[in-house]
Amino acid sequence: MQLADIGANLGHASFRDDLDAVVARARAHGVGTIVVTGTSVAESRRAVEIAEAHGLYATAGVHPHHARDCDAQTIPALRDIARHPRVVAVGECGLDFNRNYSPHPDQEQWFLAQIELAAELGKPLFLHSRDAHPRFAEMLRAHRVGRAVAHCFTGEAAELRAYLELGLYIGITGWICDERRGAHLLALVQQIPADRLLVETDAPYLTPRDLHPQPRARRNEPAFLPHILRAVARARGDDPAALAEVTTRNARTFFGIS
Question: So what's the pLDDT on residue 1?
């Protein structure tokens, strides 16, 4: 199987000492395409550096947790980063009303600014939403967002329906492997059209709970994407190899990767 991990935080400090080995393991497990997530101006620059060094791809954006730190220089900086040929999407951006690390007005202001930046550059959006439905969907609808993926979808049926009606792609992570929090996804993933389904690790977070043995320090990494893909395939009643082909094709289409 050849797979595409559409979201991996390889700039995280936990990968500082063995990033070369992490990328090599991913490729050995058939994960040939990895998109490194940018979550701030600095992390987006780091994502591009990693993408360049390892033949990967990157996103450029500001996560809602960091919206309170944005200023007049944020969008010009992201614009410059996002013009790099290895940058395939604007984000991770959106709304997070769960942890509320940034005030809601700040989150909405800078989410809108990144929606506008993506439209200006003709790039898709890599979206984050947690406990922010329906406001998140309202903003997408009001601003006529085009190509976008709901990264790390963990929501309920009404939220999924809203995103599908908006034409979003849906990213599924190892959350589906967590019998405590993700069991509802086993049914919902069946409702995602095959041509809008994407898979991701969100490494180093969301290590599949049913992965045995568990990795040291429970650090997730792209090499575990086949485990997630197989869980999604079981839930949908799909052949894993066929689903791998579909999701990889979807990723290349969505990000414009040849």
Answer: 84
